[in-house]
Structure formats: structure tokens, C-alpha cells
Amino acid sequence: MIHQYLQRSRSAGDRRRGAVPGSTSRLKGARVPFAAASAAAAISLLAVANPATANVTAKSGSGATLTVADVAPFTGIDAALGPTYLVSCDGATNAINSAGGVLGHQFKCKAVDTRGDPADAVPAVRQMYASTSNLALVIGLTSDEAASVVPIINSNKTVMFGMTGQSEFDHTHFPYFYRLVPPDLAESYAMVAIAKYDYHYKRVALAFGNDIGSQTFVTPAIQSLKKAGLKLVDNETLDLSATTFRTEASKIIASHPDVIFTEALGPTEAAFLTELKQQNGGKVIPVVGTSATISPDWYKSVSAAVGASTLSSNYAADNLVVETSGPAYQGFAKAILAEKGKVGNTGNFSTYLSAPGAVHLYDGINLAALAMIEAKGTSPSVYRNFITKIGDGVPGAVVVHTFAAGAAALKAGKQIRYEGPGGPTNFDSYHDSTGIFQIDKYGSSGQVVVSGNIPTTQLRAVS
Q1: Which of 18, 148, 126 is nearest to 69 (CA)?
Q2: Best exposed site among 77, 161, 363, 443 by fewest CB in 10 Å?
Q3: pTM over 0.85
Q4: For residue 384, what are the CA distances in angstroms to 177, 187, 284, 365?
Q5: How far, in Å, CA of 181 to CA of 358, rounded?
Q6: Mean pLDDT of the region 286-295
Q7: Is there a single domain that holds both residue 160 and residue 239?
Q8: Quick check: is 230 in a domain?
């Protein structure tokens, strides 16, 4: 599987420009299914769902405001994900509006709370269609709800950029679905590569939340650890509704791991690591997190629990290489930092510049907006055909790094290739475009620091 993933990766040479040690990089909400069979069944059952709400998407006349819907958890155990995506949505659409909008239209963002639960996500999406006019694009879509709602959104012919890492989207074709983040199994391999090659750990414990998105890292991590010759000493599932984790912490300590692989969102990680530290004589066992742990909320709660300096010296995470300087980064940083204080109010706001959900959805929104201009229409059934062309480019295309530059070039009659902070795209037949992994750490004040890249040879060796 990883060989296919690597073949689809964005250009390593282009993307390595972002890996400058000591620079600020980028959060993510990408995930995999807890039970692939049940998720696949959900896809097949829901693919024909909700026909009554079809064709509600944007086909408006000039001047109507177009809506970008952020379909993600705003409440529940993964409540930090929705606001992260909304920061990106507001930043991108405000920059687009400031540059004149698209074909006479301005944009606005709308939060659609899935609560991180398919049972809540399906009616929320149906209500979105019933109550939203001029819906131009959907973003978000974590593994908590993607398998349930992507078929509905696709049947309504609405373009979407998803953050889910679920592997079934590697080989199930939804014409309106696009993804700029890797499958979760690739993230599991990256975590193993970090442990083996960068820190030379030999004994690994797992501590993942009991939500769908976290648990789906577990099986590929176990398989990868075995191939890498590392010993799995314990595997604990953390109940995200619990308030104490003394039993889990005690078992992990007794197994004597060198490192803990983890993803537990909400207050769970802080509570778990606090009890682990207390029972371990005041010492923190090093952790390697998924890219979802690169988050202002996660950092704020965990650093408060174990200490900022302690976390800084005992934490690493995988992430995708992104730009940290140059025109793409500058435009992105300006757009995101303009939203400070408007959405969310926790942690170091600059961490959003390293958050996968902020970076890749910003790129997705810009790709969609530029595709509308190229298509001379805002209907998703029309403009979706130009997204790959704008992202991957054509011979002779002018490279642009912001919406404003791309809109100006298109107005001048030029062909363009958009390269945003997430780097160049290389879409496959399933509309996936993913990139090269890097290793991120936290500085003492919560800033994200890039400590290196993960060579593809290492990922292949552990996959």
C-alpha cells in the first residue's frame, strides 16, 4: 500500500524547500476507518441517499454570496477540528473577497457540526442542503463522519476537500471528492520510521483514543512495528469520555516502553500524560504523535499538564512538508493571522500555520475558486473539471502562489498552476494528492519546529 501512496506523492524536491530546521511549519484532522468493512458498507448504502436535496449547490447569478461549508466536529470529543478548518476557511475566503471575489461573487463560510458522530453527521448534512443557498464547496470531513456523508455530498454534486485519511478513499471513486492529505496507514509508517531511524527506540507502547479516527492508526502501526523489528510492549485504548487513566498509565509504565505512539484529542491526552508522569516518579515517557497533535488546543492542554519544556524535549510528530517561506507561505500566513481572535481562542495561534487542516484546506479553497474562474462558472458540476488542471498544471502554465496572482493571470489569458503552502499537487485518478513527511517538534513557547524529513526509503522499509 505504501508503495502506491509514495508513487502518488507530490514532488519531493519541490516540497523539501519547506523543511528548514528551526522554521515554523503547519494540524490535521485526517483519519482511517475503525472497521473498514462497516465503513465500506456505509458508503455503498448511502451512495444513493438524500436524492431530494440534490442540485442545491451554487448556480446563482452574479452578485450572490457563495457558501463554503465546514462539515466537521465543533462539539464532542474532536471539537477542536472544526474551528481549525474554519480558521482556514475564513482566512482563504476573506483573501479571495479582498482580491475581488470570483466572477462577481463574494464568499462566506458556514459551520456544520457533525459532533464527530455519523449518527449526527448525516442529519446535519441533510439540514445543510435544506437550509443553505448557493453552496459552492464543502471542506472538512474527518474520519469521524466522512464514510457516512461523502456519498451524500457526492450525490448532490458538490465539490469537497476532505481531511479524512480513510484508506477506502484511496480506491473508491467519488467524482466530487478531493484530498490533499495522506491515508492514515502512511502516517502510522511515518511514526514507526521516526521511532526507528531518528530516535533509535526499540520498545513501543500504543495509547490511542477510542474514537474511529484514532483507532484506525493502531492496526497499521502494529504491522509496521513488526516489519521494522521494533517490539510492541503494550496497546492501550483511551476512553475519551473518561476522566482518569490510572489503569492504562500503570500498564504502560509496567511494560517499560522507550516511547509511546499516541493520538487522543480533547482533554484526554493531558489527563493521561498527567497520570503517567505522576505514577512514573515525575518522569514523562517520550511520545510520538500523529499530525492531529499539532494543534493549539492539544499543545495548550498537554503543556499545561506536563510542562512546556518537558513536552518540548519529549515530543515529536509526523507531518507533511510545507512551505515555510516565500510567496505561498507569506500569502497564507497573512490570511490566517488576520483571523486571530475571531475563531478559537486557545494555545499559540501561529500553530495554525503548521496545522494540516489549515494548510491543505486553504489550498483546496483556492484551487476551487481559481477553477471557477477558469470554468467561467460557479456550479460544482462545471468547475470541478478544472481543479486538477489548475493544481497539476499544463505545459507552459505560469506558477502562481496566491488566489490574487492566479486570478490576475487567468484574466490575462494565461494558463496557470497553483502552488500554495502545501506545495505542488499531483492528483491521481481518485483525486488524491499527498506529499513527503517531515518531523515536527514544539518549541518552548508552543511554536512548531521542523527537525527533519523522513526519506521515502525509510517509509518503504517499515511498510
Answers
A1: 126
A2: 443
A3: no
A4: 9, 28, 48, 12
A5: 12
A6: 93
A7: no
A8: yes
